[in-house]
Q: What sequence folds into this?
């Protein structure tokens, strides 16, 4: 069955389509092309902004009204369940990222992607700068001091050279990417719980299925200290 699959029937009763929250989001934003309508800033009172879609949907549900779609797609119909999902995403609270997270969740669902948690990334110790000569690529060195050495019976002053190094990718860069993934995961959990508790989906049932919370746990990494790659 395609992502736009219709209602099945078993003994005359409607059977709701079961999807995990990530699949439901991709169906709503990628297939149905639902649009994210965010509520106006709290300090905006000018006429014309109106209420957010989430508020409108909740009010219609309270009154027993049918949620009508089609207002966001030119010449075609946007499924009512897709609009409910979009409205739920728009309500992501500030403690989970608020409007910025809502936009991120919607756009990643529309593209069918998950946050880049930098799979397989291992910090490596590399020269900060390199230079190319007839002998190939070599690390750039700097003078860090001088020493007196005895050479062929004579004392000479020689420069002490060192190769400045850095970590690529930096451990903090990897950690930040994974914090971003975890923030997205928690936001999806909030959306899932809201859709389940709200009971506003007519033809879909959101299951407990979630993406892996720490997918990098299945990818053991090498100790960064063992990955120094300074060039000669």
A:
């Amino acid at each position: 069955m395609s992502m736009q699959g219709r209602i099945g029937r078993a003994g005359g009763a409607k059977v709701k389509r079961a999807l995990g929250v990530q699949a439901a989001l991709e169906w709503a934003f990628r297939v149905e092309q639902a649009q994210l309508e965010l509520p106006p800033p709290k300090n905006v009172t000018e006429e014309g902004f109106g209420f957010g879609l989430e508020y409108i949907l909740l009010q219609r549900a309270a009154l027993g009204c049918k949620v009508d779609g089609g207002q966001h797609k030119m010449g075609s119909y946007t499924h009512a369940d897709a609009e409910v999902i979009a409205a739920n995403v728009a309500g992501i609270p500030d403690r989970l990222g608020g409007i910025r997270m809502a936009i991120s969740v919607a756009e990643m669902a529309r593209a069918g992607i998950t946050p880049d948690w930098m799979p397989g990334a291992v910090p490596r110790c590399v020269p900060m700068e390199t230079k190319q000569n007839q002998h190939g690529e070599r690390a750039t060195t700097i003078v860090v001091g001088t020493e007196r050495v005895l050479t062929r019976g004579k004392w000479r002053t020689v420069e002490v050279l060192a190769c400045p190094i850095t970590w690529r990718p930096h451990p903090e860069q990897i950690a930040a990417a994974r914090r971003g993934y975890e923030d997205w995961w928690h936001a999806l959990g909030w959306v899932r719980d809201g859709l389940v508790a709200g009971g506003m989906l007519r033809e879909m049932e959101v299951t407990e299925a979630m993406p892996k919370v720490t997918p990098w746990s299945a990818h053991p990494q090498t100790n960064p200290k063992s990955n120094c790659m300074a060039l000669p």
In short: The CA atoms of residues 35 and 72 lie 7 Å apart. The first strand starts at residue 8 and ends at 10.
